[in-house]
Amino acid sequence: MTDRTALHETFTLTRTLAAPVAAVYRAWADPKARAVWNAPVPGVEIAYDAADFRVCGIDRVRYIEPDGAVFNAHLTYHDIVADQRILYSETLSCEGAPLSAALVTAEFFDDTAGCKLVVTVQMAALNESGMEVGYHEGWNAVLDCLPLWLARESAGGVA
What we know:
This protein is an alpha+beta fold. It contains three helices and seven strands. Helix 1 (21-29) packs across helix 2 (31-37). The longest helix has 24 residues, at 131-154.
C-alpha cells in the first residue's frame, strides 16, 4: 500500500420503496433499525458504540465480518431535515488503517408507490484500498435490504 489517494468517485443510487416517506426516514434515523438493514453482506454484525442522530452528532459503528475482520465507521451528521434529507460524512478504517472518506446524502421524496429514495455518495478510497468497489457493492446491498426491513416493520415485525 502507498499513502496515495487511489480514487475519487461519485455515484447516485435510487430506489422506489413501497412505504411512506416518514417510515423510510425513520429507518435511517433509528440506529436500532440501521443495525438490522444496514449490513452490506449477510452475516455482518453491526455494533453502535455511539449513536447521536442530530446535526453535529456522531455515530461510531463497528461492522464485524463473519471472518472476524472489524471495520470502524465514524459518521458526523452535517444536515438533517426530517422526512427530506440526511447529509453526513463518514470515514472507514480497519485495524487502524484508513480506507476511505465519504460524503453521503440521502434524500426522501413522495412517490405514487411510496417513497423515492436517492442516495448520493462522494468518496475517496485511500491507500489503494479498493474501497471504491466495496462502496458500490455495499450500498447496493444495503439499499436492497431496506425494503425487506420496511415490509417486516409494516407487518408488525413479522416476516
